[in-house]
């Protein structure tokens, strides 16, 4: 088991990269181009600091084999001049490229589009050496979401991402989110500048959400709230139990929020938790540790094999797992042994009593 205290995998982290790191990856792209210059470039797509990722994706025409090859690089991995060591590739059928070419030859479109790139986050740059009805190539750049005025380019993005690993397809959904008016569900997961204790909370929540969030707070639906390191963890009792996490950098006033409910926007549960944080209404979680018979207590503590817990439900312990989910785990293992140790209980040892009661009833 791994730590439930740091939750590195719980949600995608936002990044505020300095310009020098951005420029470093631009230099890496130049290095790749020089290495592959013998091939004819058909398309190149750069996702620079896009949700903290740096990806360079190209389609080359390989004359020797009369075919096209899709190549992609995770620029974070590229550390030396051995370019071939870092790329992955997929062959693209000539027929698919021909269909794309024929389609774009009929378009009367603005093939040049460049948003102001003062911000170096979520930058998307696309160059395609495809002839349109008015231009010989396409050269566009924008931040994160494909502008509606460039909706015709969605065909190119779909072609590229359909031939990339499935783990990258979420980038495609984000890129096309503006076309489906669904940008909110991606934006709310990003880091943003906000003073958790002083700024106007109502400025980031819709009116209806604010009203529902206030009621949740006033109805005392927040059963647990605790700060651990730079994160606030809370359980909100709604239609079901939901986990809310607020990551907050107190010095830089940067915040990021997460809720396990189905809403993909700043929801009422998050609103209620912020009110509780501001009013200092904390209620600590229980802390439990899995007993690994092959490790000493010190080794288990050092490897962070412990979890936030809300109590006993039937024959299970309710914990927060490493993926930002509320999960039920059996009190007893397959050998009918209790391999859980209570590290932190309430003053009246409520959790320990619940576990002992369960063991006694058996």
Describe the structure.
This protein is α+β, with helices and mostly antiparallel strands and 362 residues long. It folds into three domains: 19-187, no CATH class; 192-278, no CATH class; 286-361, no CATH class. 25% of the residues lie in helices and 30% in strands. The chain is built from nine helices and 17 strands. The chain has helices at 19-35, 94-105, 154-162, 169-175, 184-187, 207-218, 268-278, 297-302, 350-361; strands at 40-50, 53-62, 67-74, 88-92, 112-114, 123-128, 138-143, 192-193, 222-228, 231-237, 241-249, 254-259, 286-290, 306-313, 316-320, 326-330, 340-344. The chain has a seven-stranded mixed sheet. The chain has a five-stranded antiparallel sheet with strand order 8-12-11-10-9, with helices on one face. Strand 2 (53-62) and strand 3 (67-74) form a beta hairpin. The two termini are 27 Å apart.
Please tag this protein with its features.
seven-stranded mixed beta sheet; alpha+beta; 9 helices; disordered N terminus; 3 domains; 362 residues
Helix content: 10-25%
Number of helices: 9
Oligomer: single chain
* Average of the residue pLDDT scores: 85
Cα-atom radius of gyration: 26 Å
Describe the protein's topology.
Blueprint lengths: L18 H17 L4 E11 L2 E10 L4 E8 L13 E5 L1 H12 L6 E3 L8 E6 L9 E6 L10 H9 L6 H7 L8 H4 L4 E2 L13 H12 L3 E7 L2 E7 L3 E9 L4 E6 L8 H11 L7 E5 L6 H6 L3 E8 L2 E5 L5 E5 L9 E5 L5 H12 L1
Parallel strand pairs: 5-7
Antiparallel strand pairs: 1-2, 1-6, 2-3, 3-4, 6-7, 8-12, 9-10, 10-11, 11-12, 13-14, 13-17, 14-15, 15-16
């Amino acid at each position: 088991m791994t730590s439930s205290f740091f939750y590195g995998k719980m949600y995608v982290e936002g990044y505020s990269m300095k310009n020098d790191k951005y420029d470093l990856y631009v230099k890496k792209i130049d290095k790749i181009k020089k290495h592959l210059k013998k091939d004819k470039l058909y398309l190149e797509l750069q996702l620079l600091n896009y949700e903290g990722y740096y990806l360079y994706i190209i389609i080359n025409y390989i004359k020797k084999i009369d075919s096209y090859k899709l190549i992609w690089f995770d620029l974070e991995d590229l550390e030396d001049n051995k370019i071939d060591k870092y790329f992955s590739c997929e062959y693209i059928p000539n027929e698919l490229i021909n269909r794309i070419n024929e389609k774009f030859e009929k378009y009367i479109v603005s093939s040049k589009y460049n948003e102001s790139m003062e911000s170096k986050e979520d930058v998307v740059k696309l160059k395609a050496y495809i002839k349109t009805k008015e231009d010989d190539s396409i050269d566009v750049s924008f931040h994160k979401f494909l502008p509606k005025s460039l909706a015709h380019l969605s065909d190119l993005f779909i072609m590229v991402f359909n031939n990339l690993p499935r783990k990258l397809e979420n980038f495609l959904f984000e890129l096309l989110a503006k076309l489906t008016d669904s940008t909110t569900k991606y934006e709310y997961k990003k880091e943003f500048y906000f003073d958790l204790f002083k700024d106007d909370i109502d400025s980031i929540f819709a009116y209806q959400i604010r009203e529902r969030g206030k009621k949740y707070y006033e109805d005392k639906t927040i059963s647990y709230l605790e700060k651990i390191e730079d994160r606030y963890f809370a359980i909100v009792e709604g239609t079901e139990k939901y986990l809310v996490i607020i990551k907050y950098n107190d010095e830089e006033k940067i915040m990021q929020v997460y809720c396990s409910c189905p809403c993909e926007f700043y929801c009422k549960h998050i609103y209620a938790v912020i009110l509780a944080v501001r009013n200092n209404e904390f209620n600590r979680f229980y802390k439990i540790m899995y007993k690994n018979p092959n490790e000493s207590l010190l080794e288990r503590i050092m490897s962070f094999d412990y979890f936030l817990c809300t109590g006993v439900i039937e024959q299970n312990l309710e914990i927060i797992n490493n993926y930002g989910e509320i999960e039920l785990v059996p009190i007893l293992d397959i050998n009918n042994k209790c391999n859980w140790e209570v590290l932190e209980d309430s003053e009246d040892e409520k959790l320990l009593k619940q576990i002992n009661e369960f063991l006694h009833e058996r």
